[in-house]
Amino acid sequence: LQLTGEGPGAEPGGPSTLAVRAHPRSVPVAVGSVLSSYGWFILLAAVAVYVVVQKVSRSLAGRPGGAGAADAAEEPDVVVRRQEALAAARLRMQEELNAQAERYKEKQRQLEEEKRRQKIAMWESMQEGKSYKGNLKLSQQEVEPGASTSTVPKSKPNKKPLRGGG
């Protein structure tokens, strides 16, 4: 490096300025001396900056409102249509749930009605002095012939007892 000002190449009577002239050979030497002195610090700083940039980019990408907020600001019609579709889907699901609840209630009402009829039949049979179990067998036999007239009740063959007599 040479400083110019008052020296052999300076103009006499000119302004006294300091200027730095760099020779092509002196630049790599200066960079080399800086790297040799502070190389590890520069390397560690570069790695730290890289790690910080990666973490920041991951946190911005993972944020649910980060990229979506910009899209929503650009296209409000899309957001409105999406919200309307979501509301319609919720309404459909609610109507389906209500229909299922009505079917369940109707089924429960039918079961309660059947229980009530059985209790009435049992009470009437008890008032007449008949056993309820016999009445059930009669009502089942009445239903079976109506359903299938060609079936004939089979008699059970005599089976041996499971335990021995001794």
From TrEMBL:
Listed A to Z, the keywords are:
Coiled coil, Cytoplasm, Endoplasmic reticulum, Membrane, Selenocysteine, Transmembrane, Transmembrane helix
**One GO cellular component term:** Derlin-1 retrotranslocation complex
The membrane topology term of the UniProt record is: Single-pass membrane protein
Annotated coiled-coil positions are 90-121
Q: Which Pfam families match?
A: Selenoprotein_S (PF06936)
Compartment(s) of residence: Cytoplasm; Endoplasmic reticulum membrane
Q: What ranges does the record list as Basic residues composition bias?
A: 156-166
Name this protein carries in UniProt: SELS protein
